[in-house]
Design the sequence.
């Protein structure tokens, strides 16, 4: 082994690519998509506008946005045979397990995505179809979990309202579009839209680097996101807060458990590989929590527990020494819950928001003509061993 390999388990200090999509400053807690701050985008933009920005590089003009919405509205339905998947899943099966397999199967229903060296138009149509169909698939997963009839998209609705219609609408009623809910959903999806080379985006890039099609590459990203150390944390946070509430709300006790190396308990929603300051998304979501719950007239006791945990942790030396702050997952679940989603759906909602980022990362990797990803290792195993017949093994 020549001395050219440096061990960097977890890629903690490895720059895996050059990218123009998202800028993070972990020390200052800065996050920008294509140069625009998330604070401005979360306040002034819609999720579809931000999706266009992240995928194509610029905020759309009115005509471009209308064209984008128009193209998407042509592809919001899924192949009717895809509904057979839902009959095969066990009831109560986790929505992320369903989502990963359904998105993977898009490559079988829409095989044009497999064409090598797609033209720009062909690649764009492949992208549009995925952006269009994900909300439908997510809402179908939710409706099936309730045993409710599926609600098909209505193209008179904008992207986010259409998702809410398919998710919470009923065939027998007109949909009462609540602007507070639409605004909250847009904001949450915007804040999840990309985050440079996080675990799932890096997964999408490395799977795509083998020239694997977009749908299968995104499905691999969904698998990576499911982990509780990554996107699965948003469901784990709510489960944790419910546990602490059921245990009497003794935040000090649980802070001490999080610090105890002999205790497997982790303060979910805290800590980040890059942010060694506040996660700027957590700041925005925490404020949105108060506003949305108040506007919806909801008093959720776990919000107070979350705030008590945060206050206690931020003055605790263990957390201070390790620069552990609330991340994007710490408060997001409280809003999802207030909007009516069960905690099993939270990570699927993270995927819905992250889709434009994954697509942009996959697209950029191809535009950069990057080689297949193939890291090396430092071998520390057995060296030369002679084969022993099974009859002679001890
Ligand atoms: C996301 O990368 C991204 O950008 C991800 C994301 C995105 O938008 O894509 O931002 C989304 O995944 C946010 C993170 C969600 N995960 C969680 O909330 C799970 C809980 N957090 C952690 O497990 C942890 O903080 C990570 C996974 C987020 C980061 O892990 P690192 O960078 O590998 O840090 P580490 O595990 O080495 O921790 C360093 C120290 C350790 O203590 P010491 O060995 O130094 O004594 O901090 C401790 C850890 O034990 N620590 C925690 C802790 N997180 C870190 N201790 C208690 N509770 C925690 N949550």
Sequence:
């Amino acid at each position: 082994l020549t001395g050219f390999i440096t061990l960097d388990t977890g890629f903690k200090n490895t720059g895996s690519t050059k990218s123009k999509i998202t800028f993070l400053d972990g020390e200052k807690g800065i996050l920008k998509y294509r140069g625009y701050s998330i604070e401005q985008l979360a306040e002034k933009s819609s999720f579809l506008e931000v999706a266009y920005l992240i995928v194509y590089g610029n905020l759309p003009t009115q005509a471009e946005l209308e064209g984008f919405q128009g193209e998407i509205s042509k592809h919001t339905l899924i192949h009717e045979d895809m509904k057979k998947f839902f009959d095969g899943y066990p009831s109560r099966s986790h929505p992320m397990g369903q989502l990963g397999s359904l998105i993977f199967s898009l490559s079988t229903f829409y095989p044009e995505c497999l064409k090598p060296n797609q033209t720009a138009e062909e690649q764009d149509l492949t992208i549009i179809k995925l952006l269009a169909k994900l909300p439908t698939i997510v809402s179908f997963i939710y409706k099936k979990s309730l045993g409710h009839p599926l609600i098909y998209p209505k193209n008179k609705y904008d992207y986010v309202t259409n998702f809410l219609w398919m998710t919470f609408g009923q065939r027998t009623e007109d949909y009462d579009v609540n602007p507070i809910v639409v605004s909250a959903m847009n904001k949450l999806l915007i804040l999840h839209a990309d985050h440079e080379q996080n675990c799932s985006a890096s997964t999408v890039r490395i799977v795509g680097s083998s020239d694997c099609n977009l749908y299968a590459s995104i499905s691999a990203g969904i698998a990576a996101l499911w982990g509780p150390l990554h996107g699965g944390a948003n469901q784990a946070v709510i489960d944790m807060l419910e546990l602490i509430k059921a245990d009497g709300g003794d935040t000090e006790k649980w802070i001490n458990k999080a610090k105890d190396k002999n205790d497997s308990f982790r303060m979910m929603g805290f800590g980040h590989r890059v942010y060694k300051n506040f996660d700027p998304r957590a700041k925005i979501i925490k404020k949105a929590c108060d506003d949305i719950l108040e506007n919806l007239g909801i008093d959720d006791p776990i919000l107070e527990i979350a705030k008590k945990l945060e206050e206690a942790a931020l003055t605790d030396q263990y957390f201070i020494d390790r620069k552990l702050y609330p991340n994007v997952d710490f408060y997001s679940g409280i809003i999802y819950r207030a909007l009516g989603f069960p905690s099993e759906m939270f990570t699927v909602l993270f995927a819905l928001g992250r889709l434009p980022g994954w697509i942009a990362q996959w697209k950029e990797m191809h535009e950069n003509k990057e080689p297949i990803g193939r890291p090396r290792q430092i071998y520390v195993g057995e060296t030369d061993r002679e084969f022993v017949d099974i009859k002679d093994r001890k």
